[in-house]
Amino acid sequence: MSQSKIMDKPINKKPFLKKPLHVSVLVLCVAVLLTGLYSMTRNAGYPKINAVQMEIAQVQLIEFTENIPADGEANPLKSIILAAVESGQIEEKYVEEGAIVQQGEPIIRLSNTDLRIELMNRQEALANEELRMTSLKKEMARNSGRIQQELAEAKWMEEAALSGYSKDSVLFEVKAISTANYEDSRRNALWQKEKRDFIQRNYSKELSGDSEELSQLLKNISIKRRNLQMAQENLDKMVICAPESGLLSRLNVEVGEYRNRGENLGTLESTDGFKISARIDEHYLPDVKQGNTAIFHLDGKEYQLVVHRIYPQVENGRFRADLLFKNELPPSLRSGQSVQLNINLSESKPALCIKKGPWMNYAAGNTVYVVSKDGKTAVKRQIKSGKRNSDNIEIVGGLSKGESVIISSYENFRDAEKILLNK
Predict the structure, then answer these.
(1) What pLDDT does 328 receive?
(2) How far apart are CA 274 and CA 324, in angstroms?
(3) Exposed/middle/buried for 332, CB within 10 Å: 0-12, 13-18, 19+?
């Protein structure tokens, strides 16, 4: 056979579908196409969200303490209102506002003419009663001397009459004197005894009356002395002195002004420490207890406090509580300075938690979008949330440790059951 005939011989090609490799490739392509079509059909209608715009956090098992935020203000441990005990005119200021004063140091002096007149009247009333008592004592002494003399004379006369009667009785027995003389002697003895008894009774009665009058005078004098002492104390209180050592943070008076009784003149603050006065949402009134701890940060350092006193009165949706420092005080803290507190409502315990965020504004924090493991989708899920603190919220049910949830706002897809995350 010639070479040209060999070259011109036709080649029979095998059908493509009869090659196993080609069949497998074709099947794979069809499967991918169908999967893509299924995926597109399944996810059709779900909103697509840029994952970069989403904030995602994991459900974690951490040590959890329920706490609440509160606004606080540093105040002195003790503030004393300086008030006018009696009305009066400001006569003198011994110190100025902002001064450090010692206990008992004079601050201001008021004057009141009525108080001075009252003091003089009570002094005069006491002097009159004391003069009456002196006069009564002198009169009682004179009367006692006179009656004692009369009583002594009566006693002597009684004894003389009894002695004469005794002798006359003997003489009468022997018929030495007449019956008339005997009767005269007997009657005289009886008369002298009655006279002495009368003087004794009168003396006792007069002495009792004088004693009662003297006792009443003594009571009156005691009352008038107390009244005088009160008047003197009220006059002394016209000089307002520092009840304790401290800072005179406010002194709202000017010389020449007239101030009424009970009117606020200034404020004295203790300088030995501060308390933090917090205003707390009324929702937490049943939960905040005396002894609860709290923290706040100042100058990069954490300070611990404890709830000391709770004021249950609610004003503008808030109640007040005073907190004391457990240890050291911040050196830079000043009276009136505002601080941000976290007040602990429970002890620390292990709990499943997720971070707080805008997501909590949707469905009261009981609905989340759980991100799939591949990060491509997120599905709405109902959960049960528990207690909260400033950073986290406790998860009681509906989530497991390690799951990821969207914690940013749900505003753009809040009605969707599922969202697609584009990366």
Answers:
(1) 86
(2) 7
(3) exposed
CB-based contact 321:75 (threshold 8 Å) = no
Average pLDDT for the chain: 85
Nearest to 280 by CA among 329, 325, 340: 340
Contact (Cβ atoms closer than 8 angstroms) between residue 393 and residue 365: yes
d(C-alpha 195, C-alpha 199), whole Å: 6
Residue 26 has pLDDT above 80, yes or no: no
- The pLDDT of residue 4 is 43
Q: What is the pLDDT of residue 21?
A: 55
- Hey, which bits of 228-383 come out as E strands? 239-241, 246-251, 258-259, 264-269, 274-281, 293-298, 301-315, 318-325, 338-344, 349-355, 367-371, 377-382
**Which band of pLDDT confidence, cut at 50, 70 and 90, is reported for residue 167?**
confident
C-alpha 49/C-alpha 7 separation (Å) is 65
Q: Retrieve residue 225's tokens.
A: 């002395």
State how far Cα 213 lies from the chain centre.
54
**379: nearest Cα among 420, 411, 423, 422:** 420
- Both tokens of 133, joined, read 């008592």
Per DSSP, the three-state class of 292 is coil
One DSSP character per residue, 211-240 reads HHHHHHHHHHHHHHHHHHHHHHHHHHTTEE
List all residues 6 or more positions away from 41 whose beta carbon is below 8 Å from its beta carbon: none
pLDDT in tens, 180-215: 888 888 888 888 888 888 888 878 777 777 778 888
Domains of the chain and CATH, by start: 46-65+349-422 (2.40.420.20), 68-77+273-344 (2.40.30.170), 79-112+239-268 (2.40.50.100), 114-236 (1.10.287.620)
Instruction: Write out the two tokens for 14.
Output: 């095998």
Cα 304 to chain centroid distance, Å, stands at 19
Note the pLDDT of residue 33: 60
Distance (Å, whole) CA 208 – CA 148: 15
Averaged pLDDT, 360-388 = 91
Separation between Cα atoms, residue 375 and residue 420, nearest integer Å: 9
